[in-house]
Amino acid sequence: MLQIKSFTFNPFAENTYVLYDETREALIIDPGCYEKQEKGELFDFIASNGLEPVKLVNTHCHIDHVLGNAFVKNTYDIPLWYHKEEEVILRAVGSYAPNYGFAQYQDSKADHYIKEGEWIKFGNNKLLCIWVPGHSPGHLVFYDELTKSCIGGDALFKGSIGRTDLPGGHHETLIQAIKTKLFVLPDEVTVYPGHGPETSIGEEKKTNPFVGENITH
């Protein structure tokens, strides 16, 4: 059965996820670890649980979600996957990272471009890749139908949505994508977002002030 472990890293309070099961194979999603202590926290969890990371995946490639890409890729010698539309977003990170205090940022490159509808397989699990653009052009979410779990990145938050004022962002696109790609999932699906606490599709459909049924503007 799929297990999900979350970590909160870097000054942006970004959620990094390690997914694994009884086979001990693991998937690492959006490693935001930058400081030595953060990298150690992730490494120690993986080691103490006897996990074997097999893939590194990005929901999208804004700086707070990719700070640990090079560390994870190099430490475990595993491939990096993300959507091709995120390539330009990731390539830009190195130019502005020092402005945010990340002078030691290390770049990383894709080993595979994810296409919508593709499956990410590890252990006894398979995650459906769903394209949810708007926060960034190639933003993906990863859905496990068996456990009704969704790694949502920065598309949908508890009571909020991803910002759309960054390069490649588009508000109307995000609203439409949430309604047509995420709100068609079962209400009981748990959403594990890129920032903040977990929520559910059902809760957000009813109460989210940006896209919920009770929206007043």
Automatic annotation (TrEMBL):
Q: Does the keyword Nucleus apply?
A: no
Which residues lie within the region annotated Disordered?
194-217
Q: Which cofactor does it need?
A: Zn(2+)
Q: According to the lineage, what is the superkingdom? A: Bacteria
Outline the extent of the Metallo-beta-lactamase domain: 13-195
Which CDD domains does the UniProt entry name for this protein? metallo-hydrolase-like_MBL-fold
Keywords noted in UniProt = Hydrolase, Metal-binding, Zinc
Q: Which InterPro entries match?
A: MBL_Glyoxalase_II, Metallo-B-lactamas, RibonucZ/Hydroxyglut_hydro
A Pfam family assignment:
Lactamase_B
Instruction: Quote the Gene3D superfamilies the UniProt record gives.
Output: Ribonuclease Z/Hydroxyacylglutathione hydrolase-like (3.60.15.10)
Would you tell me the protein name for this molecule? MBL fold metallo-hydrolase
Query: What's the source species for this entry?
Result: Cyclobacterium plantarum
